[in-house]
Amino acid sequence: MTQEDVFKKLISHCKEYGFVFPSSEIYDGLAAVYDYGQMGVELKNNIKKYWWDSMILLHENIVGIDSAIFMHPTIWKASGHVDAFNDPLIDNKDSKKRYRADVLIEDAIAKIDEKIEKEVEKAAKKFGASFDEALFRQTNPRVAEHTAKREELHSRFAKAMNDNDLKELRQIIIDYEICCPISGTRNWTDVRQFNLMFSTEMGSTADGAMKIYLRPETAQGIFVNYLNVQKTGRMRLPFGIAQIGKAFRNEIVARQFIFRMREFEQMEMQFFVRPGEELKWFEKWKQTRLKWHKALGLGDDKYRFHDHDKLAHYANAATDIEFEMPFGFKEVEGIHSRTNFDLGNHEKYSGKKLQYFDPELNESYTPYVIETSIGVDRMFLSIMSAAYCEEALENGETRTVLRLPAPLAPVKLAVLPLVKKDGLPEIARKIMDDLKFDFKCQYDEKDSIGKRYRRQDAIGTPFCITIDHDTPNDGKVTLRHRDTMQQERIDIDKISSIINEKVSLKPLLKKIAND
Ligand code: ATP
């Protein structure tokens, strides 16, 4: 099965089992907007709790806020979004499809990289154990040719983006013969800038309505509350403010399911530091955040850093944490050293001082900021794509199982009476009633036990217990583990402690604590 097929299956699995639905589906949907179903919302909430606790519980110097989506419009002028939150768009005149010019070029670079890797793979197969990969990369003429082309393309691209040179972006697309994936032609329009912010009006027109924006990031709500939190929380630098909330971007090309949405959710933390110390903290937060991802056990080789060539208007260092999705390594989280750009500009535009008096230095300054910014939906997608698995069983059947990290699974325990009679449902109900205070349980008595196990595998439930005819006599149930499918008999009164230990966030948080 190709990765594309796996991705298609994952999307339909998400729908079939109540994780993600297309928004407004009975009206044929709304492009790049999705709703989370009964399972999806649980997984999403668990992801958010893992992030929130890792920030707020593990760091005495990080606090949370929840700022409004609507904000004063001047905020977006000060932040640079009104003038610079643009993507370069280009249309293909034949297919009438619209693309981001930068993404077309990035894809072309990725294709050259693939060619290089294929050459290396081919040679590795041919030469076997004696293969010297480093030497091959340095000396093979075909690899050298591809590498030179890549370097040239890449440096032209980086320069055009840095200079905001739209003509040059188009010229690169022409010179490198980049075609429209739909029509296959190179009949391109000019490249134009497109602002990604949604706007609406606040107040009635008679009052003089004010144009306001739906926030394209949650970060600005933190910056404009910096002083409120610093003063009321008596925070001393370095300290952080965390926030989870919706953000909105009118993405030009919205595709790849919940990877690129027009309404999505972010988990952002702005860490305020002394000027001059920002790069040290940038490195620190890179490592802390990578550790958070890796603790989930989805596979260490599925992550990599990607340092930015083009720095955003506010940054002096930036990297992405990329995850290997079914469609390649893609950004899940951005870590940015935002300097004092945001606070400095808010000082300028609002006329209010947003400074910190540093008692050690005996001076006041505008703090520098390190930002960690992760999309809940992209995190959801990365977890789902790593967890989704079709497994061949010994009896020739296949089972679809979501190997979700147990603390994130929507349902932690399924409670299954073997039959619908002989007092077994009553015992099962009693167990449900005891455990429902600890974690999400699901009761199911319909169909054969095998079918019920499959249903739970498909939603990623890490544990099932079965109440059978021995239970009334020995006070034991059968505990079945999702991943190994192994079964063991355990006492009813031990269920709570056994499951609690496995599904709690605590072991995950302990893994990443003490940085
Ligand atoms: P991209 O280059 O993919 O457009 P970005 O660099 O603009 O992303 P940031 O502004 O750094 O993204 O936003 C921080 C995080 O918010 C991203 O790492 C991503 O997880 C999430 N995010 C951004 N845009 C979207 C979107 N349209 N849909 C879903 N998540 C998003």
UniProtKB/TrEMBL annotation:
Compartment(s) where it occurs, according to its Swiss-Prot or TrEMBL record: Cytoplasm
Recorded GO CC terms: cytoplasm; extracellular exosome; microvesicle
Family label: Belongs to the class-II aminoacyl-tRNA synthetase family.
The keyword Aminoacyl-tRNA synthetase belongs to this UniProt entry's keyword annotation: yes
Database matches in CDD domains: GlyRS-like_core
The protein, known as: Glycine--tRNA ligase
Residues that, per the record, bind ATP: 249-251, 259-264, 331-332, 375-378
InterPro entries for this protein: aa-tRNA-synt_IIb, aa-tRNA-synth_II, aa-tRNA-synth_II/BPL/LPL, Anticodon-bd, Anticodon-bd_dom_sf, Gly-tRNA_synthase/POLG2, Gly_tRNA_ligase_bac, GlyRS-like_core
Residue numbers binding substrate: 100, 217, 264-268, 371-375
Subunit details: Homodimer.
Domain Aminoacyl-transfer RNA synthetases class-II family profile: start-end pairs: 177-417
Catalytic activity, EC: 6.1.1.14
Keywords: Aminoacyl-tRNA synthetase, ATP-binding, Cytoplasm, Ligase, Nucleotide-binding, Protein biosynthesis
Cross-referenced SUPFAM superfamilies: Class II aaRS ABD-related (SSF52954), Class II aaRS and biotin synthetases (SSF55681)
Span of the signal peptide: none
Residue ranges of coiled coil: none
Catalytic activity: tRNA(Gly) + glycine + ATP = glycyl-tRNA(Gly) + AMP + diphosphate
Phylogenetic classification of the source organism: Bacteria, Pseudomonadati, Bacteroidota, Bacteroidia, Bacteroidales
An example molecular function term from Gene Ontology annotations: ATP binding
Class of enzymatic activity (EC top level): ligase
